[in-house]
Amino acid sequence: MRKILITGANGMLAKAVRERFKEDELICTDVEELDITNLEQVENLVQREKPQYIINCAAFTAVDKAEECYDLAEKINADGPRNLALAADAIGTTLVHISTDYVFDGDLDTAKSYTEQDRTAPVTVYGITKRHGEEAVEENCKKYYIFRTAWLYGDGNNFIRTMLKLGKEKEEVSVVNDQHGSPTYSVDLANIIYQAIEKNIPYGIYHATNQGFTTWYELTKKIYEIEKISCYVKPVTSEEFVRPAKRPKNSMLSKEKLLAQGIQIPDWEDAVKRYLQFRDVL
Ligand SMILES: NC(=O)c1ccc[n+]([C@@H]2O[C@H](COP(=O)([O-])OP(=O)(O)OC[C@H]3O[C@@H](n4cnc5c(N)ncnc54)[C@H](OP(=O)(O)O)[C@@H]3O)[C@@H](O)[C@H]2O)c1
């Protein structure tokens, strides 16, 4: 049994991580128990509990709101991981940190997907602060995994839940068809993290989403097809659906590096079907 500290423990991914690692000894903290932006609190807890792993699920994840709150986003997404990295490194603990496709500008030709070696170039406050978090982990901790994920859904507010609600209420919904990525089930990401730890794969950055690529439009059509919802899905461009934070056109992350380590990664369609089968009643 491993001793594992999970931060941001009431978040969407954290719930799946807690479930996947339930056989281990878990210390689950949300901001009230451990504010990751407070170095003293982080050091005290880590020194006292001496976990073998820290899985950082805490983050400032409101992508549009971040555009107006740089300082707070930087504090949570960059200072927080730095504090955890310093505390982990001091006792030789492994830090598992979660990052995002937003560290890229999303302008890569959609015939290609981003690899871990590709140059980062974030264009939003969220992406910039998440990249700073990656750098803080790389610079301050020897034993770390950074898993970049994208289009996450699970137990919490998410795109699929929103589209199900809209599909039942409306006759037509407009959905962007020029942003490409992999919808990623929190349960599958938690299992990727679990496998990585079990297999003791080499430390470093890994791209971790479900397999296969789609667009938000195609995803919505798939959800309605599975759920037999008759609402018409109208494809629109990003330019027709402007948001405060620019959305990447290409969020496609190559999983070759993880696959080469023998990690099993389910296809996104299979994951969506499982989620729809087991999700909470809306
Ligand atoms: N959701 C996505 O589509 C997506 C895509 C790519 C990458 N990611 C990354 O995946 C990870 C997990 O995302 P998620 O969607 O599960 O996030 P989430 O549901 O928003 O959960 C984040 C948690 O962090 C907590 N938190 C905020 N500030 C904190 C602090 N100072 N100290 C401790 N806890 C704090 C939040 O508490 P409060 O709710 O009380 O603020 C919340 O429980 C994040 O690193 C995110 O950047 C997410």
What's the short version?
The chain is α/β, with parallel strands linked by helices and 282 residues long.
Model description:
- This protein is α/β, with parallel strands linked by helices.
- The protein has a single domain (3-157, 182-213, 252-266), classed as Rossmann fold.
- 40% of the residues lie in helices and 17% in strands.
- The protein is built from ten helices and twelve strands.
- It has helices at 12-20, 39-49, 63-66, 70-90, 125-140, 159-169, 186-199, 216-227, 256-259, 268-278; strands at residues 3-7, 25-29, 53-56, 94-100, 144-149, 152-153, 172-176, 180-181, 184-185, 204-207, 214-215, 232-236.
- A six-stranded parallel β-sheet has the order 2-1-3-4-5-10, sandwiched between helices. A two-stranded parallel sheet has the order 6-9.
- Helix 1 (12-20) links the parallel strand 1 (3-7) and strand 2.
- It is globular and about 55 Å long.
- The two termini are 36 Å apart.
- 46% of the residues are buried.
- The mean pLDDT is 96.
- The structure holds NADP nicotinamide-adenine-dinucleotide phosphate.
- NADP nicotinamide-adenine-dinucleotide phosphate binds at residues 7-8, 10-13, 30-31, 35-37, 57-59, 61, 76, 80, 98, 100, 130, 149-152, 156.
Report the CATH architecture.
Answer: 3-Layer(aba) Sandwich
* Beginning-to-end CA distance, first to last residue: 36 Å
Strand order of the largest sheet: 2-1-3-4-5-10
> Which percent range describes the beta-strand content?
15-25%
The total count of strands amounts to: 12
Question: pLDDT below 50 for ≥5 consecutive residues: which ranges?
Answer: none
CATH class: Alpha Beta
The CATH topology annotation reads as Rossmann fold
**Average pLDDT value?**
96
